[in-house]
Amino acid sequence: MVVRVDVEVLTRNNVTLGGQADGQPMLFAHGYGCDQNMWRLVTPAFSGTYRTVLFDFVGAGRSDLSAYDRQRYASLQGYAADVLDVIRALDLHDVIFVGHSVSAMIGVLAAASEPGRFAALVLVAPSPRYLNDEGYVGGFTESDIEDLLGSLDANYLGWSSTMAPVIMGNADRPELGAELTASFCRTDPEIAKRFARATFLSDNRADLARVTLPTLVLQCADDPIAPDSIGEYVRARIAGSTLVRLKATGHCPNLSAPAETAAAIAAFVRNQDTRPGGRGSPHVP
After folding, report:
1. Which pTM does this prediction carry?
2. Among 35, 94, 183, 251, which one carries the catalytic annotation?
3. CA 179, 180, 181, 183: dihedral to nearest 10 degrees?
4. Angle at 254 between CA 141 and CA 123, to 5 degrees
5. Maximum alpha-carbon separation in the chain
6. Is 251 marked active-site?
7. Is residue 223 flagged as an active site residue?
8. Tens digit of each residue's pLDDT (9 = 90 or more) over 219-247
9. Which residue of the set 101, 160, 202, 281 is catalytic?
10. Domain locations in the chain as residue ranges
11. CA atoms of 18 and 38, how far apart (whole Å)
């Protein structure tokens, strides 16, 4: 059977394919202010076995900025639609989705919409809600979020230069903070401001219970964006999920500790047997 590939979507989202053409697909989604380049140190660990799929959300990296729609991307559902568009464009099944930061919840939304396309989720430094609530520590007060969004609106480049190193952590490795700063600064400021609102005002706690797939939660130490308690919160609300606490510090282990991150993912997919027909696959009757 000849599968029609939607070239328009692949161009729009700057899709990059690697690894084994006939391998199980492993799709990597980047976080806020980033692009697919943030996975470059992790994907080589899987290219010998899996079909690696990287892409840029519309508005990020080398995506087609003309395709950006303010209404579509006003919430994380619009970004989840990007994920599903890429999966459909390549007619992928049994996808192992690896999402960093806000993309963790974007993956949760995408998998809840079309669970039959997915085999497993890997949530790297996830947070279902950034704002504190009664009985819930998201890490930010209402005034924190207001100040953050206000700073973004007033001076996005200045905010990026100040906040990117804080988000990255690892102050003893300033080159990491510099790379994240550069990534933030390459993003269109207006789009970045809107994505920030969609991200930091989101609340996906109720969506966690909709996940029926094998799920790995990777929690970093000293994460300034997702406090330590968040990993356990997510694990407790996704049935059968696995929590691994990384030694990596900061919010971006895909850059600061790629070997540890890749090893944790590899161990999970191996133990879960997420291959087509494996015990972790949603297609097993």
Report:
1. 0.93
2. 251
3. 90
4. 60
5. 56
6. yes
7. yes
8. 999 999 999 999 999 999 999 999 999 99
9. 101
10. 7-272
11. 15
